[in-house]
């Protein structure tokens, strides 16, 4: 897996995806999320892979262990590089996800890396405490989920840049900290609450950054991508 900025392809369908990708003449690391996957199904994965790009399939599974295990068995056959679940599904669910991925990975192929969402980057500490009734600081909750994820044997977590260094200190450098909520300085936050710049992410311990609207919504997406890559140091 490379450490290029991961571009979130939050588009309604294949047509918009390839209009966007055709601006680039290099292999990218892209994220396919719920909107696109639910619209196009697994064929979008095949087509984006054929075009030479690495893929983070972001479906954030969260269900009983057996259901997640079976679903992961199917996703393992798609040949993506990275997949995710919600850590709130618990340790048994995460262990099931890993077992499913291992069982479903074709012989001779590498198992996709598996990470778990801790607290979404659109969540504030106040919201978390009021709505989820978690009696911890936001950092405390994220660190708790990171440790649970590590004990379940997963490869890392999704978190915000604000928690990345503390997770690295707790779980080790090789445990991935994948951080969305990335904005260029002065950029619109939209629905994100825990945001940081690409250079801030590098400095504060992210392993990989996920960038959507700061690139896909830019007037010139290629130059926005170059700018993000330069600040991230790639
Ligand atoms: O798992 C994710 O990718 C994810 C987790 C999270 O906590 N926050 C988050 O924003 N994401 C995803 O990262 C992308 C961020 O997009 P932008 O806010 O447009 O940069 C979206 O596709 C989200 O679904």
TrEMBL record:
Location of the Orotidine 5'-phosphate decarboxylase domain: 4-228
PROSITE patterns linked: OMPDECASE (PS00156)
Recorded metabolic or biological pathway in which this protein acts: Pyrimidine metabolism; UMP biosynthesis via de novo pathway; UMP from orotate: step 2/2
Active-site residues from the entry: 58, 60, 63
Keywords: Decarboxylase, Lyase, Pyrimidine biosynthesis
SUPFAM superfamilies in alphabetical order: Ribulose-phoshate binding barrel
EC class name: lyase
Alphabetical GO biological process terms: 'de novo' pyrimidine nucleobase biosynthetic process; 'de novo' UMP biosynthetic process
Pfam families: OMPdecase (PF00215)
Entry GO terms, CC: cytosol
Amino acids binding substrate: 10, 31, 58-67, 121, 183, 192, 212-213
InterPro entries linked to this entry: Aldolase_TIM, OMPdecase, OMPdecase_AS, OMPdecase_bac, OMPdeCOase_dom, RibuloseP-bd_barrel
Catalytic activity as recorded in UniProt: orotidine 5'-phosphate + H(+) = UMP + CO2
EC number: 4.1.1.23
One MF annotation (Gene Ontology) recorded for this entry: orotidine-5'-phosphate decarboxylase activity
Functional description taken from the UniProt entry: Catalyzes the decarboxylation of orotidine 5'-monophosphate (OMP) to uridine 5'-monophosphate (UMP).
Subunit architecture: Homodimer.
Family classification: Belongs to the OMP decarboxylase family. Type 1 subfamily.
PANTHER family on file: OROTIDINE 5'-PHOSPHATE DECARBOXYLASE
HAMAP family documented for this protein: OMPdecase_type1_B
Protein name per its UniProtKB record: Orotidine 5'-phosphate decarboxylase
Species: Lysinibacillus composti
Gene: pyrF
């Amino acid at each position: 897996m490379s450490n290029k900025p991961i571009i979130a392809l939050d588009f309604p369908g294949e047509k918009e995806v390839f209009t966007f990708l055709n601006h680039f003449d290099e292999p990218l690391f892209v994220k396919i999320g719920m909107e696109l996957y639910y619209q196009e199904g697994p064929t979008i994965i095949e087509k984006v892979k054929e075009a030479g790009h690495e893929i983070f399939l972001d479906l954030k599974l969260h269900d009983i262990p057996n259901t997640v295990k079976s679903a992961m068995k199917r996703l393992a056959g798609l040949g993506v590089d990275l997949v995710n679940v919600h850590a709130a599904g618990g340790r048994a669910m995460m262990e099931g996800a890993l077992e499913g991925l291992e069982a479903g990975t074709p012989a001779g192929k590498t198992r996709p890396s598996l990470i778990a969402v801790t607290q979404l980057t659109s969540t504030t500490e106040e919201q978390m405490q009021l709505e989820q009734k978690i009696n911890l600081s936001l950092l405390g909750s994220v660190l708790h989920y990171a440790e649970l994820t590590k004990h379940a044997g997963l490869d890392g977590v999704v978190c915000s840049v604000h928690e990345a260094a503390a997770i690295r200190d707790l779980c080790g450098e090789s445990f991935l900290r994948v951080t969305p909520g990335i904005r260029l300085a002065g950029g619109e936050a939209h629905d994100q609450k825990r945001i940081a710049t690409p250079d801030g992410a590098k400095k504060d311990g992210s392993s990989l950054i996920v960038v959507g609207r700061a690139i896909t919504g830019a007037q010139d997406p290629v130059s926005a991508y170059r700018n993000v890559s330069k600040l991230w140091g790639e």
